[in-house]
């Protein structure tokens, strides 16, 4: 993809704050999520009532799949929240650095030109372990906090989850000028540190 990189004064590399990646905690009770997903399966009559073992097993399988879809939503949201917080910290760094402060507009947050920071992460090939950054940030732009599983319909978890997040990001990023410049990846350095979402 062709990018128009902004000119950064000087020749040195600028140190940005570390990207602290929060992940879904390992102690998140998958069993509890499956129980709650089973309640969604029952409440929304996703499978006709039947006492047969086959139908019972199908309901359990569907509940497990719903719980997995929800855990995917949490993983995307956690990554997106990490990136949004990192962008805020980068703004502070830019504002306190004379050679960088003029590069950011002072528009209301979250200004679409801040998608250049997401592009910087992509240009630097930050490992995301299979989580697309646009969907992750889109999920965070959509939800200030991750919604509890009880608030998610089965249709949302199965079909809309990814599409909604991707559309939210594309809409946000598309609000900046088409000629929006990007940050040259060779002029910026930062660490990526894994933490746990508390």
Keywords:
two-stranded parallel ribbon; 48% helix; mainly alpha; 5 helices; elongated; 7% strand; 4 strands; 198 residues
How far the N terminus sits from the C terminus, by CA atoms, comes to 37 Å
- Poorly predicted regions are none
Number of helices: 5
Task: Using the alpha-carbon principal axes, give the shape.
Answer: elongated
Backbone structural class: mainly alpha
Bin the strand percentage.
Answer: 5-15%
Described by strand count, sense and barrel closure, the largest sheet is: 2 strands, parallel
Number of domains: 1
H-E string: EEHHHHHEE
Q: How many extended strands? A: 4
Strand order of the largest sheet: 1-3
